């Protein structure tokens, strides 16, 4: 999936971010995604120092979306689905901030499922 214009849902966005985490090397032999999975497998959580990098990748992903695509993605979230505000009355930057946390949760849930063998 490429960012830009068009329809995207939370699952597709989380998968795209996961791919970026796989590409992110933390050592010559280890990528960030596998490190997170190993930590979840061993200690039922992962090192908080990786959250900043995950958020950086999420922000980069969101910055590639045009305003309407970001709003459309937000509308697929629980908060966005429940909000009846017309799209032209929403502030795209505020929507992106909300999406950061939604995507962080989605990526964390994805990592948890994969680490625990439920993917």
How does this structure look, described?
The structure is a single chain. The model has no long low-confidence stretch (mean pLDDT 90). The protein is elongated and about 45 Å long. The longest helix is centred in the last third of the chain and has 24 residues, at 92-115. The protein has 119 residues and is mostly helical. The chain has helices at 10-23, 32-43, 51-63, 67-75, 78-82, 92-115. The chain is 65% helix and 0% strand. The protein has one domain (10-115).
For the termini, the CA-CA separation is 19 Å
Helix amount:
55-70%
Multimeric status of the protein: single chain
Largest sheet: none
Short description, anyone?
This protein is mostly helical.
What does the secondary structure layout of this molecule look like, with pairings?
Blueprint: H1 10-23, H2 32-43, H3 51-63, H4 67-75, H5 78-82, H6 92-115
């Amino acid at each position: 999936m490429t960012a830009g214009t068009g329809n995207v849902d939370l699952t597709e966005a989380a998968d795209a971010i996961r791919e970026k985490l796989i590409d992110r090397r933390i050592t010559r032999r280890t990528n960030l995604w596998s490190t997170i999975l190993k930590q979840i497998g061993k200690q039922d959580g992962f090192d908080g120092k990786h959250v900043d990098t995950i958020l950086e990748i999420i922000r980069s992903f969101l910055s590639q979306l045009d305003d309407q695509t970001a709003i459309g993605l937000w509308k697929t979230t629980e908060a966005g689905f429940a909000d009846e505000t017309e799209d032209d009355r929403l502030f795209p930057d505020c929507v992106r901030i909300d999406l950061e946390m939604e995507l962080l949760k989605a990526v964390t849930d994805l990592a948890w499922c994969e680490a625990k063998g439920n993917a």
